């Protein structure tokens, strides 16, 4: 894997590799070039595991901004489960 490159794994599934000589950083992505509606999914939150909050950022949801070259993320969404009558 070369820095600052895209590597095709199969079909339209690819890896984007950061331009960084210090360490290897990459993420998988799918490239669509035809117009249409596409579903972008993130991590699933399961309330049954005892957590009362869920947080998504660019590492958990591809719809949020992430600058691979500078390892910069700027967006986060947090949900807090509040029991009825406690607001």
Word description of this protein:
This protein has 2 domains: 38 residues; 47 residues, no CATH class. The chain is built from no helices and 7 strands. The protein has a 3-stranded antiparallel beta sheet, with no helix packed on it. A hairpin with an 8-residue loop joins strand 2 and strand 3. The model has no long low-confidence stretch (mean pLDDT 85).
Which key phrases capture this entry?
87 residues, mainly beta, 2 domains, three-stranded antiparallel β-sheet, two-stranded antiparallel sheet
Helix content: under 10%
Structural category: mainly beta
Shape: elongated
**What's the number of extended β-strand segments?**
7
End-to-end C-alpha gap: 51 Å
Largest sheet properties:
3 strands, antiparallel
How do the strands and helices of this protein lay out in sequence?
Elements: E1 5-10, E2 13-17, E3 26-30, E4 53-57, E5 66-67, E6 72-73, E7 76-80
Antiparallel strand pairs: 1-2, 2-3, 4-7, 5-6
Overview in brief:
The protein has strands spanning 5-10, 13-17, 26-30, 53-57, 66-67, 72-73, 76-80.
